[in-house]
Automatic annotation (TrEMBL):
Name listed for the protein in its UniProt record: Oligopeptide transporter, OPT family
Chloroplast as UniProt keyword: no
Protein topology in the membrane: Multi-pass membrane protein
Protein localization: Membrane
PANTHER family: OLIGOPEPTIDE TRANSPORTER YGL114W-RELATED
Lineage: Bacteria, Pseudomonadati, Pseudomonadota, Betaproteobacteria, Burkholderiales
TM helices/strands, residue ranges: 12-34, 40-59, 71-95, 101-120, 189-209, 221-241, 261-280, 312-332, 344-369, 381-400, 412-431, 452-472, 516-534, 554-577, 589-613, 633-651
Keywords (A to Z) from UniProt: Membrane, Transmembrane, Transmembrane helix, Transport
Amino acid sequence: MANVVQAGPKEITIRGIILGIVITLVFTAAQVYLGLKVGLTFATSIPAAVISMALLSAFKDATIQENNIVQTIASAAGTLASVIFVLPGLLMIGWWAHVPFWPTFGACAIGGVLGVMYTVPLRRALVSQSDLPYPEGVAAAEVLKVGTSSRSGAAEGKLGLMAVIWGSATSALFAAAAGAKIMAAEVAVYFKTGSGATGIGAASSLALLGAGHLMGITVGIAMLVGLIIAWGVLVPVLTSIDPMPALSAADHALGAWSKQVRIIGAGAIGAAAIVTLAGLGKPVLGGLKSALETARKAKMTGAEIPRADQDLPIFVVGLVTLLAMVPAGWLMASFLQGGVLSSLALPLVIVGVGYIVVAGVFAAAVCGYMAGLIGSSNSPVSGIAILTILGASLSVGFVGKHMMGPEVAHALVAYALFVTTVVLAVAVIGNDNLQDLKTGQLVGATPWKQQVGLLIGVGAGSAVVPLVLELLNRANGFAGAPNIGVISASPLAAPQATLISTLAKGVISHNLDWKLVGYGAALGLLLVIVDFVIRKASKDRYSLPPLGVGLAIYLPSAVTAPVVVGAVTGWLFERAVENATWGETAKRIGVLIMSGFIVGESLFNVGLAGLIVATGVGEPLAIPNSMGEGTQMLIALVLGGAIVGGLYRWAARNAEKVAA
């Protein structure tokens, strides 16, 4: 029997748990809105760590490990909200009119718990014994170290909190200006190209600029290439092939993009994801084998397990995994109860639970490895979701093929989406667990305490997702959904959920436009080759992530164009300060301002949804005015540029003071 060393610093505390839960609730609400609007989410570990350090500095006995537990709990918000890439699909296909709390909470919570359990055995192989870079995990550890190591670190922690507050306040006010109709919500121009048409649009969104800064210049350039392919090549060509002179340039271009180009983008994302994931099979299997071998040796030799190497006991991991299958099966049986699939409930539940076990393990391992390779924000969750829905649709479609009809097909699509929600929760929390454990390794944390912390975050985040989702469903609704009784005339795009539900319907009903998907897949494979050549020629200094290109083809330009602008301005800012002695501090403060941009705008819009529901008015903040569209666009550009430029200068000036 291995000996366990118990002594260690203060880590899990009541105050830390409460603070972590509060941050999780706030950030999850922000993430749900952002994901529904643009199909992207951001990592919450760094802003959570900064907020924690600033607030817990009031206690003399606060430790770096305690702050680490707070960010571990809160990090669940940045990942668990990704389930909204699938869940709104049940509203879009008309299966749900409203978001039920318990089924949604259950799918998120069960998937999240399994995500933690599935990745516990991978920690040694993929974290402590691995040379994977874990960019976000290392960055969070550096922030914690700097913020708790010295007087100047404490000063930077307080400055970081101010950066989050300033970013949040300015982005909320900017979004309020758009809501009040003082400025344009989107800056766009469309024009004819002979018999065809094209153009470009960009949402007036500081949150998207912030997302671009956080993603970095590599992803930004990939998205720029995707924009050029979509709006500079595909839209002009396809509109020229099918001229519609009676339509305006905007209607013609947007029609071709929505009906054809985004399907090509979906094919490119799918092919790039499959190739990316296929290359991970060997390292993931090797990591699992190494983890099991390490555990076996420790048990046989009775070796002493240091505190910093203690995971949840493998017996507990196995027991919790088995027990989680009971509520999972009950949830799925309840989902099928009383519907056209009632007679198939038993085989469908067996297939669903089996799929969660098999696909969940695979998805958690792959996402965990990708978190180590490129960070959890850049991890190809879209690709995992696409593969998962395809597998789920084929599996449940096979069970119900002998009684297939319109109603049965509809019910099978809904069931496939529900099963995929659970698997995606497994994947994203597995991704997050390993990233957090890397941070913990660098700051001397106890792994099992972090794993418990993440389970707490999963519970808190799972409670928020259905509440915010239903609020936004009642206020705005979603593009493509029946939206019966919705108050606002501005539905949220929910682009990822649109893609996932389209694929599910296409596979089960056999009406997917496979020709366009095939063109997209060919483009995706070409992008994989181009990326390989660039990496090889530059010795891995440069790359062109194929998933980033595919996403920019698939997502509306209103979403991707501001992300590209944010990536470029962030790169220019970091280039401008990198040679200064205070350059690294300025970069960290810049990241926190951009995180604040995302949080502030997203929370404002969640609050606006509440106001819409409370008043029954679609645009409760709108102020009548006589300004033209061009004037409103100019105001948006000038005001946005002034805010971003001013806060970058504020970051540089204050970083210099802190470092002095």
